[in-house]
């Protein structure tokens, strides 16, 4: 399991003994969302008052920042195959991110 916390961390937990496996300091503010990709190789996070989605590997290394919303993010969901991420925002937009593109070194906003 994964949790998002008011201290800005995302934590991956060992379900059998309740210990923390990985802690990611995703933001200095309250973390609103933390989601696993279907294969559990990526974590998507978003802070409560931010319009940026951050992607992390399980070592806690940030892999990408997805920018484009103009207001706070209200939802995050990975596609079943893990190749896309859907984000919704209070700016009344829905964005479908191509993660194959974003995970390339040097990817820039399309």
Question: Which percent band covers the strand fraction?
Answer: over 45%
Shape: globular
What is the CA-CA span between the terminal residues? 32 Å
Biggest sheet statistics:
4 strands, antiparallel
Number of strands: 10
Record the strand order, biggest sheet. 4-5-6-7
Low-confidence regions: none
Q: Average pLDDT across residues?
A: 90
Helix content: under 10%
Q: Total helix count?
A: 1
H-E string: EEEEEEEEEEH
Derived from helix and strand composition plus strand pairing, the structural class reads mainly beta
Radius of gyration: 13 Å
Please write out the topology.
Elements: E1 2-4, E2 9-13, E3 20-25, E4 31-36, E5 42-47, E6 53-57, E7 62-66, E8 73-78, E9 84-89, E10 94-98, H1 99-102
Antiparallel strand pairs: 1-2, 2-3, 4-5, 5-6, 6-7, 8-9, 9-10
Which descriptors would you attach to this protein?
four-stranded antiparallel β-sheet, 48% strand, three-stranded antiparallel β-sheet, single chain, mainly beta, 110 residues
